[in-house]
Amino acid sequence: MSEPATALTGCLAPDAGLDPIDKSGLQGLIEKGKENPQAIKTLKCKTVAEGRFRHANYIRNLEPYIVDEPPALLGDDTAPNPSEASLAALGSCVAVGLHANAIARGITVQSLELELEGDLNITAVWGTGDTSEKPVGFTDVRIKVDMKADCPQEEIDALINHVIQWSPVFNTFSRPVNMIAEAV
After folding, report:
1. How close are the terminal C-alpha atoms of the chain, in Å?
2. Confidence band, pLDDT 50/70/90 cuts, at residue 15
3. What is the pTM of this model?
């Protein structure tokens, strides 16, 4: 199976007919964040089982975001599984951070691609299989950033390090989070 072709969109594609990211709008977000550094935003998602292991996730007023399992995990293979979706969220968060920080620093991005891999042991099969002592969830995640921009590679490397320090999803992956699950 061959890799899909890369499609550049937005300000990365000069002939896409789309407006680039608004630098003044970005500056407004930066100033707003500095005005109230303790602000907390609560994000919401409603997950509804549709059948077998396929779930519709309702976020804001968007079309449902579908998550499923592959046939090897008894799903219908209609969408990414939850672990793949979490890698996609991580990759997208880092990519947004790279793009926004590049714009804020006056760097023009010609192309941006991230490849993510994560290792996890799935033998516990959601707590129904081998439940012997082992880490549950990703034990290792690798992110490869291929970014072409009008700056030296050292500046891109520094940008990557800055972005992973401030990425909400990267930090969710890399530190404990207070979690509560309860029946309603």
Report:
1. 44
2. low
3. 0.84
